């Protein structure tokens, strides 16, 4: 897999999310300022609720813009021997199924379909990211989230 192409695919997906967030913000603002949301009595909170939603959506737009900027500035390592920021890592789970993870500075949990494979972004601050950080090909990786334990073996680091 080509990490540069994967990063471009990730950026496109993040830009789509930004456009959706901007659209949702605009709709929330329109709802908050619509004449139909003008309170009819002191207990009518529709306009207030709509303004809270508009504020939350605006904060989401800011977060999307910030994360997109961070991802655009990220440097991809060349010939990484151990897992680090910017690496694409393939792991085998207990069922010998390949799982693909891209170590990213943000947007953890985002899933991208790339070359007929599902790639999930993982940050180094996540439980899996902490377990992977600095590991080498062939190393075992285990971590726990709540009562559930996960076990992997590192197949490749790109």
From TrEMBL:
Gene3D superfamilies in the record: Transcription elongation factor, GreA/GreB, C-terminal domain
Top-level division of the source organism's lineage: Bacteria
GO biological process: regulation of DNA-templated transcription elongation
Molecular function GO labels: DNA binding; kinase activity
Organism, as annotated: Vibrio aquimaris
UniProt entry keywords in alphabetical sequence: Kinase, Transferase
InterPro entries on file: GreA/GreB_C_sf
The protein's name in its UniProt record: Nucleoside diphosphate kinase regulator
């Amino acid at each position: 897999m080509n990490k540069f192409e994967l990063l471009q695919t990730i950026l496109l997906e993040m830009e789509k999310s930004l456009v959706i967030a901007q659209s949702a913000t605009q709709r929330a603002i329109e709802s908050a300022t619509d004449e139909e949301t003008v309170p009819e009595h002191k207990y009518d909170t529709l306009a207030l609720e709509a303004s809270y939603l508009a504020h939350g959506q605006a904060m989401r737009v800011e977060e999307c813009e910030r994360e997109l900027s961070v991802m655009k500035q990220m440097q991809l390592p060349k010939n990484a021997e151990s897992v680090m920021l910017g690496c694409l890592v393939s792991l085998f789970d207990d069922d010998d199924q390949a799982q693909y993870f891209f170590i990213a500075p943000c947007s953890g949990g985002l899933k991208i379909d790339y070359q007929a494979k599902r790639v999930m972004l993982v940050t180094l601050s996540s439980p899996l990211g902490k377990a992977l950080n600095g590991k080498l090909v062939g190393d075992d990786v285990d971590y726990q989230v709540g009562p559930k334990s996960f076990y992997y073996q590192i197949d490749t680091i790109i």
